[in-house]
Design goal:
About 35% of the residues lie in helices and about 20% in strands. It is α/β, with parallel strands linked by helices. It folds into 2 domains: about 5-90 and about 185-250, 3-Layer(aba) Sandwich (Rossmann fold), CATH 3.40.50; about 95-180, 2-Layer Sandwich (Hypothetical Protein, Haloacid Dehalogenase-like Hydrolase, Chain: A, domain 2). The chain is globular.
């Protein structure tokens, strides 16, 4: 079995922007309790999402020292030292880079014809190390998000245009309505290699579980590292993966 199990968050451990449910809560605690196994989560979401979706819902007593958290597609890395969460690095965008990205997003979303007529909150969020476009806004209800771009075709068209406008950045699809933009090469593959370097765990000993491993998805760069990857459709499939890991280790 693998020494490090790495998960995406939205669409993999939880529904988009939602808290992990009770079953996932218990399974993750059980996984953290398996000897010789560590757990990591790499997501396009920012640190506050990790706090509200994941950390606030883990059972009291879960071994957080075995958990590594990498928000904004691996552009940041947090470890727990027993007293709190420490940020090990943050590959931030500078003001000029942010302005270029926002201008390109404004231009290409308008040109695509897919700009939503109704939104819930800001559609562009500055996450310091990542700019995220959420087509329906940051607080959009899940039902609306699931029906906006179910086959990814709208975001693929916008991404293709952004790739032309921003050739020196990494543009990936994330979540159900999002596009994540980071510095070139600073993506989930970068996060996997940082896990290797910081934890001292070979990539061959890692298993990655995510719902966006398709070309253009923000999980897809992980395949480039050689890590074993499992594509899931939703958190329910992820639960079955976790159950299997726990059973094999037991």
């Amino acid at each position: 079995m693998k020494t490090l199990i790495v998960f995406d968050l939205d669409g993999t451990l939880a529904e988009s922007k939602a808290a992990i449910d009770d079953e996932m809560r218990g399974l993750l605690a059980g996984l953290l309790g398996v000897p010789h196994v560590q757990v990591s989560v790499i997501s396009g979401g920012d640190w506050p999402q990790f706090e509200t979706q994941l950390l606030a819902n883990l059972p009291q007593g879960a071994d957080l020292t075995k958990l590594s958290l990498l928000p904004t597609c691996g552009t940041r890395f947090y470890r727990y030292d027993g007293g709190g969460w420490n940020k090990l690095y943050s590959e931030d965008l500078n003001p000029e880079q942010k302005a270029r990205i926002v201008a390109a997003l404004d231009k290409e979303v308008a040109a695509s014809g897919f700009a939503a007529t109704k939104t819930w909150g800001p559609t562009i969020e500055d996450r310091e190390s990542q700019i995220t476009y959420s087509a329906l806004g940051q607080q959009a209800p899940l039902d609306a998000k699931k029906t906006w771009d179910p086959d990814f075709s709208k975001r693929m068209k916008i991404k293709a245009a952004l790739d032309r406008d921003l050739p020196d950045f990494s543009v990936r699809l994330g979540g159900t309505t999002s596009i994540d933009i980071t510095l070139p090469g600073i993506d989930k593959a970068y996060g996997i290699r940082k896990l290797r370097d910081i934890l001292g765990i070979p990539i061959d000993d890692m298993l990655y579980v995510g719902d966006a491993l398709f070309p253009g998805g923000n999980d897809a760069p992980v395949r480039e590292t050689g890590a074993v990857c499992i594509q899931v459709r939703d958190p329910n499939e992820s639960k079955r993966v976790i159950e299997t890991v726990i059973a094999c280790e037991s």
